[in-house]
Design goal:
The complex is a heterodimer. Chain A has 5 helices and no strands. By secondary structure, chain A is mostly helical. Classes of the chains: A mainly alpha, B mainly alpha.
Chain lengths: 110, 239
């Protein structure tokens, strides 16, 4: 891999930092104490469950580590993590068993 | 008296977020490793994690820079990945909006997936908390999670290229996010939001710059809100 241009790198670090702060500040900082309508709040209740699954789904189905090819061990590990987390409500148990199932499946399929 | 209350919510925040150290650590190490492999030196790698403090966006930006994408594409894609921070910010506003501006600015900088997920769950479970208690809880979650992000990035940069690909560290990220989300799927509305998001993200993955994720996020929120309305109406009919 030939190097990343230093000017580009620092431009990205600084502007991405400012932009990310802006995104994080836009509501908490600017709207502050003003109340928001009920329909907005109803949508906001589902922010986390609406964004994170969409972030993860392509990583599970088309992992970069297998050049975007569907990979049974990774799908199995994702399903195990989901099942354990859903039924036990325990984040750590879900991560632990998910990781174990990934290594077990990689060993079996590999 | 109120000081002891904020003190105890602060420590509750610290305790509740401790499990996420197991999540942050591999993710931070992974970023340090990947950045070093891409040719970044220690100062550059650490600046990335401290200035941006958003794992997924950092990985996105790094990947695109390695592919020599134009700077505006790098920024647009990474900020699109981070657009969920605006949604977190909006979702925290009813709880933290009454805090002083300097606190809200600090809260904004430290708004990450884990501090948000911990805090919003605690606020929903403790509707009686004052703004000060909520702020104290938020900074409790930040205390364990964010320094770990910096330290583990450093560890990763030190380890560099020594981690073998067989360890499949790439999958630490999806497993982490799934484990965070799964316990949240406690109502039909939450499950509908998540399912809609997955389907839309896969269907619209062809849209460049991660904008498919925005379609999935907005669609998931609309599905959740819609199902919540249906549920409420059904309960009213039964009652």
């Amino acid at each position: 891999m030939d190097g990343i241009d230093k000017t580009t790198l620092w431009t990205v670090i600084i502007l991405l930092g400012l932009g990310s702060f802006g995104l994080r500040f836009v509501f908490t900082g600017i709207i502050g104490d003003r109340s928001m309508p009920e329909w907005v709040l109803r949508h906001l209740r589902y922010t986390a469950v609406a964004v994170l699954p969409g972030l993860v789904a392509p990583l599970v189905v088309w992992p970069a580590a297998t050049q975007g090819q569907i990979d049974p061990p990774r799908v199995i590990a994702a399903l195990v993590t989901l099942g354990v987390g859903y039924f036990t409500k325990n984040v750590l148990a879900a991560i632990g068993l998910g990781a174990c199932s990934l290594y077990a499946a990689l060993y079996l399929f590999g | 008296m109120s000081d002891t209350h904020t003190n105890s919510t602060y420590w509750q925040g610290v305790r509740d977020s401790l499990p996420f150290l197991l999540v942050i650590s591999p993710f931070g190490i992974l970023f340090g490793v990947v950045a070093t492999e891409a040719g970044l030196n220690l100062l550059e790698t650490m600046s990335f994690s401290i200035v941006v403090i958003a794992g997924a966006a950092q990985f996105t930006a790094l990947q695109l820079m390695s592919e020599h994408a134009p700077t505006f594409v790098v920024l647009a894609s990474a900020l699109a990945v981070n657009l969920r921070m605006a949604m977190y910010s909006a979702s925290l506003t009813p709880h933290l909006g009454a805090a002083p501006l300097w606190q809200r600015a600090l809260i904004a900088y430290f708004t990450v997936d884990q501090s948000y997920a911990c805090s919003i769950t605690a606020y929903e479970n403790n509707p009686g908390w004052s703004t000060r208690q909520k702020v104290a809880y938020f900074f409790g979650t930040v205390t364990s999670v964010c320094p770990a992000w910096y330290v583990m990035t450093y560890v990763g940069a030190m380890i560099g290229t020594a981690i073998p690909p067989e360890l499949a560290l790439d999958f630490a990220v999806p497993i982490t996010f799934i484990a965070i989300v799964a316990p949240m799927l406690r109502t039909p509305a939450h499950r509908a939001a998540a399912a809609t998001s997955v389907v839309l993200a896969l269907v619209f993955s062809f849209i460049p710059y991660n904008l498919g994720l925005m379609v999935a996020g907005v669609g998931g929120m609309m599905a959740g809100a819609r199902v919540e309305l249906w549920q409420n109406r059904k309960e009213q009919e039964v009652a």
